[in-house]
Amino acid sequence: MQFKNEKAIYLQITDFVMEKILRSEWLADQKIPSVRDFGGELEVNPNTVMRAYDILQQQDILYNKRGLGFFVSPEAKSSIMHIRKKQFINIELPKFFDTITLLGISMDDINRLYQQKQH
């Protein structure tokens, strides 16, 4: 994983975990890598991974079985979809609309490009 400077590493790890769940690489009730193992894999301090796991646990994406580790919650995908849709609508979409307005791109152009991508 390549980390970027514009966002805290623990938040990038939360995004990475969410992607794995959305792509069905990590499934509901599946045990995920331990904090120590994942930290080693990502080459970050285990405390950074723990911070990410804590956030994901607060969002009902992960749950902890004491002594066994962290697992993907059964409602993880729907929780992630809700979080991601809200972020997209509130943050990304306004930027998108500003950009297409600035560039004079119409919604017809967008729709045509979207239809082409679907085929």
TrEMBL record:
<protein>
    <submittedName>
        <fullName>GntR family transcriptional regulator</fullName>
    </submittedName>
</protein>
<keyword id="KW-0238">DNA-binding</keyword>
<feature type="domain" description="HTH gntR-type">
    <location>
        <begin position="7"/>
        <end position="75"/>
    </location>
</feature>
<keyword id="KW-0804">Transcription</keyword>
<dbReference type="InterPro" id="IPR000524">
    <property type="entry name" value="Tscrpt_reg_HTH_GntR"/>
</dbReference>
<dbReference type="InterPro" id="IPR036390">
    <property type="entry name" value="WH_DNA-bd_sf"/>
</dbReference>
<keyword id="KW-0805">Transcription regulation</keyword>
<dbReference type="Pfam" id="PF00392">
    <property type="entry name" value="GntR"/>
</dbReference>
<dbReference type="InterPro" id="IPR036388">
    <property type="entry name" value="WH-like_DNA-bd_sf"/>
</dbReference>
